[in-house]
TrEMBL record:
PANTHER family: LIGHT-INDEPENDENT PROTOCHLOROPHYLLIDE REDUCTASE SUBUNIT B (PTHR33712:SF7). This is Nitrogenase molybdenum-iron protein beta chain. PROSITE patterns: NITROGENASE_1_1. This molybdenum-iron protein is part of the nitrogenase complex that catalyzes the key enzymatic reactions in nitrogen fixation. It is an enzyme of class 1 (oxidoreductase). Coiled coil: none annotated. Pfam families: Oxidored_nitro. SUPFAM superfamilies: Helical backbone' metal receptor (SSF53807). One of its GO terms (cellular component) is molybdenum-iron nitrogenase complex. Binds 1 [8Fe-7S] cluster per heterodimer. It catalyses: N2 + 8 reduced [2Fe-2S]-[ferredoxin] + 16 ATP + 16 H2O = H2 + 8 oxidized [2Fe-2S]-[ferredoxin] + 2 NH4(+) + 16 ADP + 16 phosphate + 6 H(+). Keywords: ATP-binding, Iron, Iron-sulfur, Metal-binding, Nitrogen fixation, Nucleotide-binding, Oxidoreductase. Its EC number is 1.18.6.1.
Length: 457
């Protein structure tokens, strides 16, 4: 087996990561930037970084991802990349004509110390940014944080475009966090059902889940528009989903433009979706329609019908903090037991929150921020589980330990469906449970003796 040499005995490591449970900051910044209509993400660094970031996103979303690069050479690596970026602004606006360029740094340009806000000022002063076009920037050094940090930094950068007019627009800003394009669609569907007008940013629906029409569009139809981003300063409030992905941007709008914000968990599972719907209901002063209550009731029905198969099943989880917090709460609420939980993203708050959510479970819980898949595997060797939930990289562990495996999170490189079938909201909860249940029951069918092999479950 591929990971047969992973030792069961755990030794403390302080300066070595093995099989990381995260990827680099610019990937998150690039994904967020693609959620602005007419945006060309720009990677301020070497071509190799940009190629990696683009391919990481393409492999997950199965869509072409366009991005530009400052193409650092030896000279720019030593003296800084200002000249390259200034030239890039001219070339990009002339050749590709985007509405906006979203620049993020890389390890290299951060180490040199390139100051993106200063370079942008110089570009504006020298007329390199045409009238009516925009440039935003985020600092995304990969030796700090993770792809989640990069995503958050770019979403916060989007709030620079907010421009209050003094007149409220009656809408709610909805910051969805790093979820799939279909999840963003689902959140907008729920908001629409409640009669709440929203400005979602970023919004990759219609960008990274587009139909094949035979026509190539450099800038797909989806994405939040510049006009909408400007209008975020006039909204009645902001609902930010996920502290790690969306909290900073929401607080920025609050402190700069007095747009009150509520930072919630991502709406995966029953309770977190309840809180999301309740926040929309309170912020916009609308009622919850019957249609949403029916969807909720269906999820409750599935939970109660199949409870015996979920009961006290042990789960190992790896992924990003916002997703893991919501998933842990969901699993605990249906009496499953998440016993090993790892994220590669730093943050002691994560460990504290997971411990609170799992308090009272019948098993001891291992949780680690800034952890890796190697540690997760070791934990699983010491305390075996019934299910592993993680991105594609978990497949090696699942195979080695012969454990049912649910692919969920980023990246998923070897399966399809994540772009099209949401896992947020009540309907998303149904999909998650259906997938979990299928894995558990397939395993039961495989392992049951003939006496126990049932037709009806
Ligand atoms: S050098 Fe840094 S920014 Fe570039 S791919 Fe590697 S980790 Fe990412």
């Amino acid at each position: 087996m591929l990971l047969r040499h992973t030792p069961k005995e755990i030794t403390e490591r302080s300066a070595l990561t093995i099989n990381p449970a995260k990827t680099c900051q610019p990937i998150g910044a690039m994904y967020a930037a693609l959620g602005i209509h007419g945006c060309l993400p720009h990677s301020h660094g070497s071509q190799g970084c940009c190629a990696y970031h683009r391919s990481a996103l393409t492999r997950h979303y199965k869509e072409p991802v366009s991005a530009a690069t400052s193409s650092f050479t030896e000279g720019s690596s030593v003296f800084g990349g200002q000249a390259n970026l200034m030239q890039a602004f001219s070339n990009i606006f002339t050749v590709y004509n985007p509405e906006i360029i979203a620049v993020h740094t890389t390890c290299l340009s951060e180490t040199i110390g390139d100051d993106l806000p200063q370079i942008r000022k110089k570009a504006i002063a020298e007329g390199k940014i045409p009238e009516g076009k925009y440039v935003i920037s985020a600092s995304t050094p990969s030796y700090a944080g993770s792809h989640v940090t990069g995503f958050s930094n770019m979403v916060k950068a989007m709030t620079e475009l907010a421009e209050p007019t003094g007149k409220k627009n009656g809408k709610v800003n909805l910051i969805p966090g790093w979820v799939e394009p279909c999840d963003m669609e689902e959140l907008k569907r729920l908001s629409k059902l409640m009669g709440v007008g929203t400005i979602m940013f970023p919004d990759t629906s219609g960008v990274l889940n587009t139909p094949l029409t035979g026509e190539y569009k450099m800038f797909p139809d989806g994405g939040v528009t510049i006009a909408e981003l400007k209008s975020t300063a006039d909204s009645i409030g902001t609902i930010a989903l996920g502290e790690w992905c969306s909290g900073d941007a929401a607080r920025e709008l609050d402190s700069k433009h007095k747009v009150p914000c509520k930072v919630l968990d991502m709406p995966f599972g029953l309770k977190a979706t309840d809180r999301f719907v309740d926040a929309l209901h309170k912020m916009a002063g609308v009622n919850v329609p019957e249609e949403i209550m029916v969807e909720r009731g269906q999820l409750v029905d599935l939970i109660s019908d199949m409870h015996q198969y979920f009961y006290h099943k042990k789960v190992a989880l790896a992924g990003d903090p916002d997703q893991l917090i919501a998933m842990t709460e969901f699993l605990v609420s249906i009496d499953m037991c998440p016993v090993h939980i790892v994220t590669g993203t730093p943050g002691k708050k994560f460990e504290k929150r997971i411990k609170e959510l799992t308090a009272g479970m019948p098993y001891q819980v291992n949780v680690r921020a800034k952890g890796d898949f190697f540690l997760l595997h070791q934990w699983m060797k010491n305390e075996p589980v019934d299910l592993l939930i993680s991105n594609t990289y978990g497949k090696y562990i699942a195979r080695d330990e012969d454990v049912p495996f649910l692919r969920w999170g980023f990246p998923i490189l070897d399966r399809q469906g994540h772009q099209y079938f949401p896992t947020v909201g009540y309907k998303g909860g149904l999909r998650l449970l259906e997938k979990i249940l299928t894995l558990l029951l397939d395993r039961k069918d495989r392992d049951d003796t003939e006496m126990k092999f049932e037709l009806v479950l």
